[in-house]
Amino acid sequence: MANIIDIISSFAIPAFIFIVLVYGHLCGVNVYDSFVEGAKEGFVTAVKVLPYMVAMFVAIGIFRASGAMDILVSVISPFIELVGIPAEILPLVIMRPMSGIASMGILAELFKVYGPDSFIGRVASTAMGSTETVFYTLSIYFGSIGIKRIRYTLWAALLADMVGFIASVVVCSIVFGR
User: What's the number of domains the chain is made of?
Assistant: First the structure.
């Protein structure tokens, strides 16, 4: 069975691309010109988003280099331990909404120190899959279409991330125990 799945997965993406090209041709679409036009629009979007991304990366760098994250972790740690959330994942909780790369680095460090099969490793892994890089996503999506006022989107997204982290602890506690 595993061999069949390997064979199917090897051909899935090329087959999908082929089907899209044939369907476009049968519908009378100039597929190559459409592809080139889409690539141009993608490049224009990337150029429009670049200032937002640079600003976000600089802000994250300042936040980490200033020691603000360490101060925030030391202030919040006693409170989250009271409700059963391991303080060791707090840097991940803080960094995940800001940067996927930085949170992956924190996850790797948690794995190195505690192991991927530890409670902390499992909670961190589940949290990574249950949350989003909110600031990055907002800067890309809203920046690409020129929206400067995000209104309630940021608060809703941060609330969803918080629920994702709490649910990660609860689910891992139920499934794996402490």
Answer: 1
Give me the count of residues in the chain.
178
Domain encompassing residue 151: 50-176
Do the domain assignments include residue 114? yes
Q: Along the 178 residues of the chain, how does pLDDT read in single tens digits? A: 668 888 888 899 999 999 999 999 999 999 999 989 999 998 888 888 788 778 877 887 788 789 888 898 889 999 988 888 888 999 999 889 988 888 888 899 999 999 999 999 999 999 999 999 998 888 888 877 888 888 899 999 999 999 999 999 999 999 988 7
Neighbours of 60 (CB within 10 A): 18
- The span from the first CA to the last CA of the chain, in angstroms, equals 36
Residue 29 covered by a domain = no
- Residue 5 included in any domain: no
pTM: 0.68
d(CA 143, CA 50): 9
State how far the Cα of 59 lies from the Cα of 139, in Å rounded to an integer.
Answer: 12
Q: Is 20 contained in some domain? A: no
